[in-house]
């Protein structure tokens, strides 16, 4: 099976950022922010140490869907975050299932807290959505988060995604608390960039 992200001419560049596909060599740079409690509290998989994270990152499915966010600086690029971009099938009835293959994408992201508040995550996610609707030719992009993760759902709203679902106590947080969830999406036909 071919990799749908091969259709993109990587890296994707914005005014301040470079977004590129991750490699196994990115583990240490990504671990610098993914290990922080304020990041780990919201992500699905919070590895306990660098070697655990490296083993997680190099799994073929994870490495194929991880994009690195680099800040362009005079001394060279600085890794400040990552975006998960997973192309997937849309839901369809059996007779038309083939037409729904590879038509959607799920997004997720992290950003080093030391770089928050400057619009970098918004800039990166907006560029990834544009890539989904441009080079990848997808019809829909969606993302979800715990409702308590206000910065994440506010970012979804800033980039033009609409709230599609609010679910009560739908996800068990690693703290042992069942938390409310939120899901957002945007269609190619509604995307304004």
- Low-confidence parts, pLDDT < 50 over ≥5 residues? none
Structural class: alpha+beta
How many DSSP E strands?
A: 8
CATH architecture name: 3-Layer(aba) Sandwich
InterPro entries: Acyl_CoA_acyltransferase, GNAT_dom, N-acetyltransferase
Domain N-acetyltransferase: 17-184
Pfam families: Acetyltransf_3
Protein name: GNAT family protein
Describe this structure in words.
This is GNAT family protein. Residues 17-184 form the N-acetyltransferase domain. The protein is α+β, with helices and mostly antiparallel strands. The protein has one domain (4-190): Gcn5-related N-acetyltransferase (GNAT) (Aminopeptidase), CATH 3.40.630. 25% of the residues lie in helices and 31% in strands. The mean pLDDT is 95.
Q: Summed up, what is this model?
A:
InterPro entries: Acyl_CoA_acyltransferase, GNAT_dom, N-acetyltransferase. This protein is an alpha+beta fold.
List keywords for this structure.
single chain, 193 residues, Aminopeptidase, 25% helix, globular, alpha+beta, 8 strands, 8-stranded mixed beta sheet
Write the layout of secondary structure elements.
Layout: E1 12-13, E2 17-21, H1 27-34, H2 37-40, H3 50-57, H4 60-65, E3 66-71, E4 78-88, E5 104-111, H5 120-133, E6 140-146, H6 150-158, E7 162-172, E8 178-187
Parallel strand pairs: 5-6
Antiparallel strand pairs: 1-2, 2-3, 3-4, 4-5, 6-8, 7-8
Domain N-acetyltransferase: 17-184
Organism: Microbacterium gilvum
Protein name: GNAT family protein
